[in-house]
Amino acid sequence: MAEAHQAVAFQFTITPEGIDLQLSHQALRQVYLSGLRSWKKRVTRLKNNVITGVYPASPSSWLFVVIAILATMYTRSDPSMGLIAKIQEHLPVSDSLSVQCRTVVSAVLFSTLLWFSLIFTMRLCLKQLLSYHGWMFEQHGKVSNTTKIWAAMVRIFSGRQPLLYSYQGSLPNLPVPAVKDTVKRYLESARLLMSDAEYERMTTLAKEFESSLGNRLQWYLKLKAMWASNYVSDWWEEYVYLRGRGPLMVNSNYYGMDFLYVTPTPIQAARAGNTLHACLLYRRKLNREEIKPSRVPVLNVPLCAAQCERIFNTTRIPGEETGKARKEFFSSGVNKRSLDCIEKAAFFVALDDDEQGMMGDDPAGNLDRYAKSLLHGKCYDRWFDKSFTVVLYKNGKNGLNAEHSWADAPIMAHVWEYVMTTDCFQLGYTEEGHCKGDVASSLPPPTRLTWDIPAECQERIERSLAVAQTLADDVDFHVLPIQDFGKGAIKKCKISPDAFIQIALQLAYYRNRGSFTLTYEASMTRLFREGRTETVRSCTSESCTFVRALEGGESKEVCRHLFRTAAEKHQHLYRMAMTGGGIDRHLFCLYIVSKYLGEESPFLKEVLSETWRLSTSQTPLQQVELFDFVNHPEYTTCGGGFGPVADDGYGVSYIIIGENMINLHISCKHSCPQTDSHKFGADIKKALMDLLELMSPEKPDPSRAEQNHLKNSKKDL
User: Fold this and answer.
1) Local confidence band at 95 (pLDDT 50, 70, 90 cut-offs)
2) Alpha-carbon span 41 to 34, nearest angstrom
3) Among residues 90, 133, 140, 404, which one is catalytic?
4) H-run or E-run covering 388
5) Main location per UniProt (predicted)?
6) CA atoms within 13 A on the CB side of 337
């Protein structure tokens, strides 16, 4: 009863003397503190809105402009060229204001207008500067004078100490490519995967589309691009994620893992305490906008932070079209109250009874089971609609499962990097494995949610569970950490690490299936406002030519030349995708417009129905400064993964850790006899090693050098 007593602010009893009120001071104090925290948040939000609103200037710069204008006026100069006098003429006449006061007020108003004009000009200049992407296409290590001048100008107009959202108003809009350019790039990417007859037919369809319907659809897209912040993102979210009818589990959600070799504590409750504490510390920094804006390394070009707004307190809520069961069983009463608690929560937490991780007599197999557990669990112990679910296992291991519609993986990876490092290196644990610090006695106890599930609802739940269980059982997953091979070895070959891995995937797939396939690599478009992703079609004619040459026994020199050509082509495609010159998002939006107009396009219909049998994504390590792979190599993040996109294909996620490690997450389906995650993993590892051997600088043969030395000695004799 103590908990119930503390939860009530006051009690009253009726006595002969009147009503006796018994106030609970502890409860009232909590009400006061809650209100105080709420007002602090409002003040902080207001302050941040002001700072972000005037960026790249600062609020204090207004005072500087006012003082400068007033000082100039007192030297009997008119910096406004008569505008201050015009303002003074239109001020309302008042006996309480002297002529001098009216002059000062006019000067302050002019200074404020001048200040806003300067802010607008600086933002416009920064927006134009950030629209330049020539720096991305320059050869690595060789920076042109144009780019040097551009980078200096960006630094000048970028301001100092930006908040998380400071650059949002200065980011350029995503450009709409020309229809003919997109069609040309599409046909180039499709040529190697089609027969001559198929290619000729597709070329005919493409030219018909380009010369007729395409121009009409393009007009609507350009109109949207002028009106909206981003012509892709809202349609991508709605039609690709929110309107999909497949289960989120496996098909859409993805996961992130704990440290690979270290579990900071074996106590589940302690690990849960620190993990949740770190998550809430991140949320506080997010609410205060204290997180530094993400940037492209080296040149420090800012990236869009719009996706960060929905990290916490976000959930997918189905409409009437997608499941009627919610409206029927969870729209009122105790079910609605319990559901609201979950959907309005910061995030979801799952405390699992299982032990997971790379451990025991079968560490590799256990690592695979750990991945499957994070991806789908037991099908009923994750809240897949929630923005993310933190999973904590019995042996202290943790991980997360994230919903995909609200943001892309790098956003959640940024959160998880902070959580993992804060958990271990800042909060820490006692020698016994418990959380440091004392228990806060004022914390309210947990409350069990109650539900009223009728038989009809239970039947629907069981049917859904059966579908989910079948899907989960079909997933074949393999996590493959490759040690003593990473960015360091690849850079010695003077090849982009991402291009190196993508070409290795093409080689591995060719060896695995005996053919090439349409390949999806996720690239980001966050150089633009509200940008999300674009597709890099990484199966190119150049990569296929190289693979055929290598497998056909061509000489090393020929293969090296072809490999470098393929890598350069991949880098070019990746840069084009990042700078708004991709193929697939443009075609997707043209297709959406055609549906709104009720027009049928055979070309767009065929393009949008193509199957991505190899879907790949790199998880970038963003906050390198939080890790110390030299002194603490055991604290290695394992990255994360996702399920296969096609029933007869593979999903491959990879993360490059430091200089000497790559972690691969490979998924496919048991129901397809042509796919095997472990075999494909072995093929990828062999392909990586074969490419490294091919591209590594040749070492002189000591025995041959000794023979040459002996020959030269004989000649001298």
Assistant:
1) low
2) 11
3) 404
4) strand 388-392
5) membrane
6) 8
